[in-house]
């Protein structure tokens, strides 16, 4: 029998269809909905999110190391960095414009009677709000949050921007004086990926 191999795109499409079918079924069967969500779907979703969070930091670190080591020249690295920032800003601007346009066009939430919605107790978020408001916001606060005080703690928390900020100068310091040494490090990491 021939080995049946389904492409990733078809697997994703199949999972979406199965999710829609399961959601439609559970919508009309409230007796089994609570048990299935509490005992199967919620734990499976939490495990999936934990697995994604677990792999993000190693993937970002190895991608940056391999990418920077592959460039080799500090001037070329600066040009690539500038192009990357420009690309990021353009894509972010397009996403914001598209989101605002579609939200104004489709007006999600219009037609919902807000008085019929259940009230939510937000008292548990008051401490978080006070903590966020106590920190300095603005340009200087953002710049200060980029510089890690403890890189291991930033890795443990999954703070990507301090990790990226830390790796940039470290690898720039390796590229400029060492010549081909970073390429060897990058080859070693890309070999293991």
TrEMBL record:
Transmembrane helix recorded as keyword: yes
InterPro entries listed in its UniProt record: Na-dicarboxylate_symporter, Na-dicarboxylate_symporter_CS, Na:dicarbo_symporter_sf
Cell membrane found in the keyword field: yes
Regions that span the bilayer: 7-27, 47-72, 84-106, 160-178
BP GO terms, sorted: dicarboxylic acid transport
An MF annotation (GO) of this entry: symporter activity
Keywords carried by this UniProt record: Cell membrane, Membrane, Symport, Transmembrane, Transmembrane helix, Transport
Pfam families, alphabetized: SDF
UniProt superkingdom: Bacteria
An annotated GO cellular component: plasma membrane
Subcellular locations according to the entry: Cell membrane
Gene3D superfamilies: Sodium:dicarboxylate symporter
Primary site of residence: membrane
UniProt membrane topology term: Multi-pass membrane protein
Name this polypeptide is given: Glutamate/aspartate:proton symporter
Organism: Salmonella enterica subsp. salamae
């Amino acid at each position: 029998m021939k080995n049946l191999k389904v492409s990733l795109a078809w697997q994703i499409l199949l999972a979406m269809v199965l999710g829609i079918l399961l959601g439609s079924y559970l919508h009309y069967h409230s007796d089994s909905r609570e048990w299935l969500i509490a005992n199967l779907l919620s734990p499976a979703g939490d495990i999936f999110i934990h697995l994604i969070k677990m792999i993000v930091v190693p993937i970002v670190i190895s991608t940056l190391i391999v990418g920077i080591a592959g460039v080799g020249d500090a001037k070329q690295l600066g040009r690539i960095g500038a192009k990357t920032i420009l690309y990021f800003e353009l894509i972010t601007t397009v996403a914001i414009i598209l989101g605002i346009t579609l939200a104004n066009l489709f007006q999600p939430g219009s037609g919902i009677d807000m008085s019929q919605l259940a009230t939510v107790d937000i008292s548990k978020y008051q401490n978080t709000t006070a903590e966020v408001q106590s920190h300095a916001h603005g340009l200087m606060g953002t710049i200060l949050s980029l510089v890690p005080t403890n890189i291991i703690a930033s890795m443990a928390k999954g703070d990507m921007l301090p990790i990226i900020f830390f790796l940039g100068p470290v690898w720039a310091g390796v590229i400029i004086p060492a010549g081909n040494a970073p390429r060897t490090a990058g080859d070693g990491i890309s070999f293991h990926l």
